[in-house]
Amino acid sequence: MNMLKNVGLGLFLWGLAVFTLIPFLASYRLTEELVDSEVKEIHREKVKELLAPMYAVPYASTYSFLHAYEGLMDTYNEVLKEEGRWEEVIWEDYGFLLAKAAMQGPSRNQPWLCLLLSLGSCMGGGLLFHLAWKKEKSPGGAFAGIFHSSLTNRGLLGILVGSYLILFYVILYWFPAYFVSLVWMVDPLSRFLSGGPASQWFLYGLVYTLAILVMGIRMFSKYAGNRYQQLRTASVMFFQTAFAFLIPEVLVRLNQPYFDFKNIWPLDYDFFFDYQLSTFLSSGGLGLFMLVWGCLLIVVAVPVFTYFYGKRWYCSWVCGCGGLAETVGDSFRHLSDKSLKAWKWERWTIHGVLALAVFMTTLTLVNYFSGFKVLGDLTNQVHAFYGFAIGSAFAGVVGTGFYPLMGNRVWCRFGCPLAAYLGLVQRFKSRFRITTNGGQCISCGNCSTHCEMGIDVRAYAQQGQNIVRSSCVGCGICATVCPRGVLKLENGPEKDRIHDFPILIGRQTIQLKK
Amino acid sequence: MSSTHFVILGNGISGITFARHLRKGNADAQITVISGESPYFFSRTALMYVYMGQMKWEHLYPYEPQFWVKNRITLKQAWVTTLDVDAKKLGFDTGEELSYDYLILATGSTPAFYDWPGQQLQGVQGLYTKQDLEDMEASTHSPINRAVIVGGGLIGVELAEMLAYRKIPVTFLVRESRFWEQSLLKQEAALVHQHLLAQGIDLRLGTALKEIISDPQGRVGAVRTSQNEEIPCQFVGLATGVKPNIDFLKNSGLNTRQGILVNSYFQTSARNVYAIGDCAEFEQVPADGRKTIEQVWYTGRMHGETLAANFCTSPQPYAPGVWFNSAKFFEIEYQTYGVIAVEVGEDIQEFYWEHPGGKIAFRLQMDAKGKILGVLALGFRLRHEYFDRAIREGWSGLKVISTLHQANFDPEFFAPHHVAIQKSFQSQMDVSFPLPKKSLIHHLFGASS
């Protein structure tokens, strides 16, 4: 069995190595025809002229190719900027498109083979490893040993994995041209699904979905016999695969706007941006439906579902960020900060981001309906700032890159504006609570230790108090890990949901207080 | 300083509960909590999880250090060696002294060893204190071939689970003829027995410890059982119960038997000295069917609450409500409410149901007229509030079972064992009542029993 585990681990590491190596196996050769086909018409002639020194020069690495490209473009733009000829500056970055077009290498020649050897191998190896590990695991439940593992206890392995993820996100968001060879690897799949070429976002979406699927299967076996955990895992796997990944691609094939039907503003922060609104309004009946659907999710689905089931209906059953956190991030849940200080921070930051998103959207809509007379270009700058600071740096780099360092719900807890909105409903108008089972709590602290949202569950349970917290995503792990059957996620009458003066069942005299 | 000085000796669940509740009701009192073991209150119940890498030591603190500052509860880490009840003074091993106006003794208990030869050897220990956890870590850190556990109760199972996690083979000696004889009947004991065997535990019933044999280095090398078998081992866990921790009070003049004698107001024989929790022994049982020494987490907490309430409002005698308890045997959870008799007389009616999988069971005991006395559940969860009410109000067993779905405390979508129990009750007791309907969602997605 140990051998099977090692084979699995070997396969996984091999796949990861191939995935990491592929960007280094790219070489580049730019031609005038490629520039012709990739660059917008208004810039075409100029760029063709500017990049002429690169034609027929072989570049052995992505870095040297981009270095040459950026050098030529920057030299040209610098002069214009100095002379104040702003209209002539070429702001567009053609680096990714040109690099992709000019690239040569195995991932372009043998994309399916590369895909099999990298991601395929990672998936197979990961599954094999987990199944073998599960069989030989010593008794002690699903949570024993996590603080004895370098990966899940912020050891060297955890720091390495975190660094790798952070690097991946930094390249994805700000230097995507370095990923063109990986993008070529998934190009045929993209053409098969949407009919169009792959972008870095297609690559990311694919990796993301496969990660949720493989780690979701791991959840089924890790929580064998726990129907609640299995169902919600199946649910996030379904919504990620169908709603976030496949349906938008198929929509593109049908000449419809790319749209994720389960993404809700303000998490989907550009839903009301002018270019989105134009897309909806210019795409016929389906476009209009998307606009109405998106609005209904905000004003009807969020309050109604959250009233009946708590925010868990979204955060740990539907959401893509939640889906990744609950599958890939499952082993890191205990790393969340449980201190009171973290709770204070959390309330400021998450509601701050919500306020920022609402502010940005209001500004955008005012500008849109006033025909861009009021604020002109200002909204674009707000959008750019939000996209950089919140959309990319916070949600991506910190949100996922820091899984092995700060736990799996950093974004959901400190940043997600939709979670803030759902949380307000959950806190003030909902039937959801985690019920404490009378006086049975022994204050062991397993619930608090393993809460991914950093809720000090024990503080409530040991007083016989129900847990009603805006941040609770209803993952149900506290109830799973509790050794005394004290916690149960429930939807019930609002009356007596919150105990201001909790009563611990157990002695007679205390009944007099009631 | 003119405010009244409460000194609490012991920072376990009863002492700390007292301190917290006293502060809630009394803003002026000066409160000092003394413990030699650990500066902060920690969850003794979770020691096993630290050993198993499921928690870290700092997770055992239910309150952040700032909590004690904010609530003006002074924590003092020191060992008390003497008590002078006339001068109202405590003496520490450092020679230092501390005066009190009121003294609350909450010193807990200590593992009870029964003078086995070799019990002082290195590698022989109980599991109670922080030091025990550290000793166990040290004794089992380098690979050992076998551990022996003595005593068929809850700490014994915890020790077995801890050692099994480290892949150390365990032999588990239980003197009685079934596992946890004082609380489990034969079916439940057999169920747990099977589960322990399935975890690879070498469980030996009817086998007592005779002596512990030293190896050449003065560490434990083997044990000899009552059957005269010698079992080589490098670690011995003694889990044969606990006794009140009162040795240091021998010369204090306090009345003691096994524990510190108290009346129903927790008053000891000395003025302004009280005792709560594991170390206290009631002169008379606090309620029918209860014991004079109550040594579980829950009673410690209730003692602390009651005494604090008595200092803050008009004093009332301690009156425990319906008994309850819980535990976990590897993966099988145990809950009980009310009184379950392990010797079933003719005046008790019984109902027992067991899941075919052999890991889930339910027992209901009723008096001759069919009134509920107690329930015991293995492998699934029951709602405390439901049974507390049912037992206090003296519901009939029929009423309890016919509305059992309200008592279900398992997570959503879990198999509805209450339905199987209700059906079984109908056929065993020859009664009928309508069964609850499954919701559509449960039909589609729920687990089946």
Q: What this model shows, in words?
A:
The complex is a heterodimer of chains A (514) and B (449). The longest helix of chain A has 30 residues. Chain A contains 24 helices and 5 strands. Chain A is mostly helical. In chain A, helix 7 packs parallel to helix 11, helix 8 packs antiparallel against helix 18 and helix 11 crosses helix 16. Chain B is α/β, with parallel strands linked by helices. Helices cover 24% and strands 25% of the residues of chain B. Chain B has 3 domains: 176 residues, FAD/NAD(P)-binding domain; 117 residues, 3-Layer(bba) Sandwich (FAD/NAD(P)-binding domain), CATH 3.50.50; 122 residues, Enolase-like, domain 1. Chains A and B meet through helix 12, helix 22 and strand 5 of A and helix 5, helix 7, strand 21 and helix 8 of B.
Write the layout of secondary structure elements.
The complex is a heterodimer of chains A (514) and B (449).
Chain A: H1 2-21, E1 27-29, H2 32-38, H3 41-50, E2 58-59, H4 62-82, H5 95-102, E3 103-104, H6 106-109, H7 111-136, H8 156-174, H9 180-185, H10 187-194, H11 200-222, H12 227-253, H13 274-281, H14 284-309, H15 312-315, H16 320-327, H17 340-369, H18 378-401, H19 403-406, H20 410-414, H21 417-428, E4 432-436, H22 446-449, H23 457-461, H24 477-481, E5 487-491
Helix pairs in contact in A: 1-7, 7-11, 8-18, 11-12, 11-16, 12-16, 13-14, 14-21, 17-18, 17-21
Chain B: E1 5-9, H1 13-25, E2 30-35, H2 47-51, H3 65-70, E3 73-77, E4 80-84, E5 89-92, E6 97-99, E7 102-105, E8 109-111, E9 124-125, H4 130-140, E10 147-150, H5 154-165, E11 170-173, H6 186-198, E12 202-204, E13 209-214, E14 220-225, E15 230-232, E16 235-238, E17 242-244, E18 260-262, E19 273-275, E20 280-282, H7 297-312, E21 324-329, E22 332-338, E23 348-354, E24 361-367, E25 372-378, H8 384-392, H9 397-402, H10 417-429, H11 440-445
Parallel strand pairs in B: 1-2, 1-7, 2-3, 7-19, 9-16, 10-11, 10-16, 11-12, 18-20
Antiparallel strand pairs in B: 4-5, 5-6, 8-17, 13-14, 14-15, 21-22, 22-25, 23-24, 24-25
